[in-house]
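Q: Protein A?
A:
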Amino acid sequence: MPAIFTDEEREGLRHTMLDAGWTCLLERGYRAMRVEDIAREAGIAPGTFYGFFASKGDFVAEMVAENRRALMEELYGLVAQARRQGRAPERAEVDAWMRAAWHSDRAIFRCVDVADFHKIRRALPGDVSMGPELAGGVLSSVAEAIAAAGGAPDAELAASLQRVCALTLLARDEFSPEVLERTLDALIDATLDALYGRTQEEIIQNQGDADE
């Protein structure tokens, strides 16, 4: 890496490249995206790219890993704050986090197909585990907090529903855009029901809707 870059400049360039990578990935897809495209979008020379990343595959793996770490840090923060206050994370808090994550353009499942997803998954750093579900392990910690507060969460079902969210996005070409987002929202609602249960008011409302 050129010595003219300070640590701060290197970190700034790295983030610029990662942001450019998401733009290129969304526009071109994993297979068609080239290092030259990323460099052009980031405003750097291709040689500078290789001063940071050995290959396109390593670069995309870092894009995904950084995004996942940020998501996990945010949700772990919600869980930790709730524990300090002697409670479980509120449904509305987890709801907002989950919808922001799944509806984000940086949800990798929106940008790749199944084969590319598995290729990227194999290249992830060792500190990042990633099944098709968004956050199975973290959902377990949410479920534990809910159980400690007297709830009866079904963590296994919640994680399975998150897998279905991922698989739905990987099969996104089978849906119209509107139906795809509505389907995700329905799966998120079901995930939250598995974690928190439904109130009697919600059950009565759903029964009334069904009768109509």
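Q: Protein B?
A:
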Amino acid sequence: MTFSADFVKLRSLGLWSFLLVAVPLASSGCIIVDEDGHHRGHQHGDGDGWEDDHDNQPPPPADEPRLVAIDTDAALSSEPGEGVGIFVEYAAGGTWRLWTTCDTNRSKVVCSFDLYASVDTSSELFDIVGTDLEKTDATRLADDGIAYLHAETGSDIDAMTFTTTEGAIVRLEAYLDGAQEPRYVYWFGDGVLHEGAPTNPIDFQPTSP
């Protein structure tokens, strides 16, 4: 199954600060297309708030990572270069894929992503592989059980795959241009395309192993 992320989100900048909680698991804008085909827009001014549409203002990230479902074998698709996205997919048997897109066709600049993925202490993470990567991109085991992807994404797609224990819960922490950016995380869970994570980090639990 493949689902299209029909969206355009432009990036924002910030300072880089990495903090991955190692415990057992317990100025631009965006346009989003509604199901009825209407566009609702946000435009960033000089401040940090969202303007024009306060009803859709995203809540601040919670202190504790939220546990969410991710549908097994549901793939996502998005047009490279047309919008910013951090996409999370899970395939039966324990294969995870994280991939990124940017708004380079519009902004004429690249997006710098830093993604960290880890598993609970009762599971394993291994076989980290980068795909469609260039010289400025890298994948590695950042620490014991933590997969790391650094991607300078332009009008292309950069991706990392890794394997975990079947059905393992995976924790993702995502940064864009040095800032925590959970609102750019996309996944398909409980039959719904989710556009933005409620927390950063966020925990993903597959619907089936």
